[in-house]
Write a structure and sequence with these properties.
The complex is a heterodimer of chains A (116) and B (109). By secondary structure, chain A is an all-beta fold. Chain A is built from no helices and eleven strands. Chain A has strands at 4-7, 10-13, 19-25, 31-38, 42-51, 54-57, 64-66, 76-78, 87-94, 106-107, 111-115. In chain B, the strands form two sheets. In chain B, strands 2, 4, 5, 9, 10 and 11 form a six-stranded mixed β-sheet that branches. Chain B has 109 residues and is an all-beta fold. Chain B has strands at 4-7, 10-14, 19-25, 32-37, 43-49, 55-58, 61-66, 71-76, 85-93, 96-99, 103-108. Chain B is globular and about 40 Å long. The termini of chain B are far apart. Classes of the chains: A mainly beta (116), B mainly beta (109). At the A-B interface, strand 5, strand 9 and strand 10 of A face strand 5, strand 9 and strand 10 of B.
């Protein structure tokens, strides 16, 4: 098992450019999520998905889009990059348990994004 | 809305000492998670606490959960340098796993 993979590892964008951060998992996890990590802010939830075809907003969704066409993939799109989106982005996945809760999340290695 | 607060946010301690990190959460959470992050790395799961009174231990780390007080603790016993890292707790709302800001732990030789 590769676990949770993310590409690219590093990316530099100019303001206004768009791009997609890729995330894939091979554990057949229903739940997937995207976080951003900024110094002193911990991890903040951007978007999440409880299964293929279902997505919802987290704490800081503005400026980002997601889709979930398959169980394995959960890409994060930056529509028009801004310097405020400079951050480290983590994708995570977990099992959904009976009753709707979640097991521990497995995290990808992260993507370090700089927007100039 | 679930808010998760950790304290302290930064802790410098000497090897061999004991200390506790606190995690308070604002509303009912189905379970409570603890993660570890080394500098420049991703997050690694430490504990999942499922119910009131739950206690889990691994090595020098012990986590507990008091759902009535909405409080979880991570206790470090006889700290060693290898435990230097940032520790996060996280709670669960339907659909959302929300993290605290993390406690950066620095253990001095």
């Amino acid at each position: 098992n590769a676990g949770v993979t993310q590409t690219p590892k590093f990316q530099v964008l100019k303001t206004g450019q768009s791009m997609t951060l890729q995330c894939a998992q091979d554990m057949n996890h229903e739940y997937m999520s995207w976080y951003r990590q900024d110094p002193g802010m911990g991890l903040r939830l951007i978007h999440y998905s409880v299964g293929a075809g279902i997505t919802d907003q987290g704490e800081v969704p503005n400026g980002y889009n997601v889709s979930r066409s398959t169980t394995e993939d959960f890409p994060l799109r930056l529509l028009s990059a801004a310097p405020s989106q400079t951050s480290v982005y983590f994708c995570a996945s977990s099992w959904t348990l009976r009753g709707g809760s979640y097991n521990e999340q497995f995290f990808g290695p992260g993507t370090r994004l700089t927007v100039l | 809305e679930l808010k998760v607060e950790q304290n302290p946010l930064f802790l410098s301690m000497q090897e061999g000492k004991n200390y506790t990190i606190y995690c308070n959460y604002s509303t009912t959470s189905d379970r409570l998670y603890w993660y570890r992050q080394d500098p420049g790395k991703s997050l690694e799961s430490l504990f999942v606490l499922l119910s009131n009174g739950a206690v889990k231990q691994e090595g020098r780390l012990m986590a507990s959960l008091d759902t009535k007080a909405r409080l979880s603790t991570l206790h470090i016993t006889a700290a060693v340098h290898d435990l230097s890292a940032t520790y996060f707790c996280a709670g669960v709302l339907p659909g959302k796993i929300i993290f605290g800001k993390g406690t950066r732990l620095h253990i001095l030789p």
